[in-house]
Amino acid sequence: MVSVGAKGTAATAGTAARVRRVGVVGLGLIGGSLALRLVARGFDVVAWNHTPRPYGSAERAGVRCAASLADLVAAAPDVIVLCNPLRAMPEILRALAALAEDGALDESVTLTDVGSVKGMVRDQVKAAGLADRYVGAHPMAGNEKSGWDAADPALYDDALWAVTVDEGTSYRRFLDVAELITAGVGDRMIVLDDGTHDRAAALISHMPHVVATALANELTESDDRNVAVALSAGCWRDMTRVALTDPDRTRAMVEEDAANVEALLRSMADRLVAVADLLRGEREQAAESRDADAHTPQAMLDFFADADPFRAYKAAQPGHLAAGDHPRVTVMVSADGWRGELLASARRGEHIVRIDAERTFTALVRSAL
Amino acid sequence: MVSVGAKGTAATAGTAARVRRVGVVGLGLIGGSLALRLVARGFDVVAWNHTPRPYGSAERAGVRCAASLADLVAAAPDVIVLCNPLRAMPEILRALAALAEDGALDESVTLTDVGSVKGMVRDQVKAAGLADRYVGAHPMAGNEKSGWDAADPALYDDALWAVTVDEGTSYRRFLDVAELITAGVGDRMIVLDDGTHDRAAALISHMPHVVATALANELTESDDRNVAVALSAGCWRDMTRVALTDPDRTRAMVEEDAANVEALLRSMADRLVAVADLLRGEREQAAESRDADAHTPQAMLDFFADADPFRAYKAAQPGHLAAGDHPRVTVMVSADGWRGELLASARRGEHIVRIDAERTFTALVRSAL
């Protein structure tokens, strides 16, 4: 199905684009949308999917489709992006490792992925012996849908990607992926280590999904459930929305980032018990003093004030500030320290949008907490 | 400022309307919107506010404004609705008790309120010696705004009210309030005891506000906060939205329903720790068995399945089913058992929309969990 034709004309960045042909493994919502986006931006895209069901539609849209993973590799992509479900990752990595062993997968080909956890994927990449060529990536893109039929290149409009690196990551391969994301897909990126990524993802998504489910369970197990749901309004609707999504997918996501989610759940439980203890103390004090106005302790005031930096951050967010309206900075990195220097940039709230030269990046400055 | 004129022509229900003149104490968002709504529906509305600031605008809109609480009482309303902030409640109740003592506040006048907690208000009403004439009420209406300038009669469009009663509640006074809400304001209502109301409100609003704040604190106290907020999407936005509202108001709301919130926070903490323990168990088992695929225990599957009735309830909710499209039932109550019979109706998911006769109601049937 694949014919190794002339390489496409990739969109060019400030540096000469090294990546012109991209292999996409998996044509679901994320992979399919990425393939369509890259085709629209002038890349030569070759894709393989575990079933050829989307191939007719994909080929009409300009995506070359490979009959097998080996055929995709034979098409000699510069970068292969693994967009398969995480549960299929070990098997696909073993197949790629075998192709590398045979010499079919050239040493120059860079491997990346779009998985929502990075530590587990890197462990699997290492187990397959492919760590040398790997750079982790995770686009903040998606919606409630799934599958090729929902694929839409606009899914990547102004999206932020996390790119994860470790001590073994080759700077050349990092640039391949960084260029693909910025000049190629037209998106923003921040550079992290796997641990920072997975802790942050647990904090703003994986752990809250468990909290939302626990809230829903508090309702379903209450004798007052029909009264409570009748009285519920926006607060309840918003705080339980993610409990309505596919529970198997949520459970898998939580289990894939288990250590971080576990620690955050214990921390959240401690916070809730601390407030419960303060409320009990206030009631006891009010009962003792026969004073209807309970005295609010400083710790209770502190609990509510501790969220002030987040309130200030949200208040400072412009509704829809165009990318061009953010201040820009130049981020220069050293040959030895680039990983830590780019992580520090991410921690300052900078989003890289362009590679200007070998070690010089342009970043948008977002407000920080 | 008040002239005791001819009574207005109130909208009529299935029964002859007993309530034609309504006193509204407090012209903030909730009280101001109620006053405007009642004027629009043909009631004679007399209002008192702790400052006359809104009076010019209110009088132009048809609301008669009283120079003092005594003047409002002198206008001889059939029902007085306390829409003042809860912190002002004890003082206003003492003033009303003094007016009752003097004979200025007639025994026939029914007292109700719109407070978001019912047990505490009833305790204050009892302390003021006004329990005989009191029926609790709480409209599920409101938005992010406050004050007279934000008042809008549309705030009560298709709103649900909780009406709370206890063993001492007069059936006649209950009907006054029920009729005011259904035929008068044009809304739905459910009838509860204070405890059920306050437990339900803690479950779907007060406790979740604490959870949202704890989530925000988890972010603000994290070293990864700027990375995490950069990666955050809809899940985080929705689950922390209510943490952005006025923290003093949230704290007061939580403290007013302290016992219920305390119990629910401990229950939530237990749920989160249980999931944390399950995640630890899964990791230990995976490490021992050297099996990358951790075996998910039944308890973890159960945690995610326990929310299924809520998922089914939400899936069964029509997007915007018009009131007329819901099935209707007739709810008949006995002279002795009406409180329990109406509570049972609420627990079945029925919303009362009309008083057909002395002890016969029409209710819409909402889907139940």
TrEMBL record, chains A, B:
Every Prephenate/arogenate dehydrogenase domain range: 20-309
Residue ranges that the Swiss-Prot or TrEMBL entry lists as coiled coil: none
InterPro entries documented for this protein: 6-PGluconate_DH-like_C_sf, NAD(P)-bd_dom_sf, PDH_C, PDH_N, Preph/Arog_dehydrog, Prephen_DH
Biological processes, Gene Ontology terms: tyrosine biosynthetic process
Pfam families: PDH_C, PDH_N
Cross-referenced PANTHER family: PREPHENATE DEHYDROGENASE (PTHR21363), PREPHENATE DEHYDROGENASE [NADP(+)] (PTHR21363:SF0)
Record-given protein name: Prephenate dehydrogenase
Organism, scientific name: Bifidobacterium moraviense
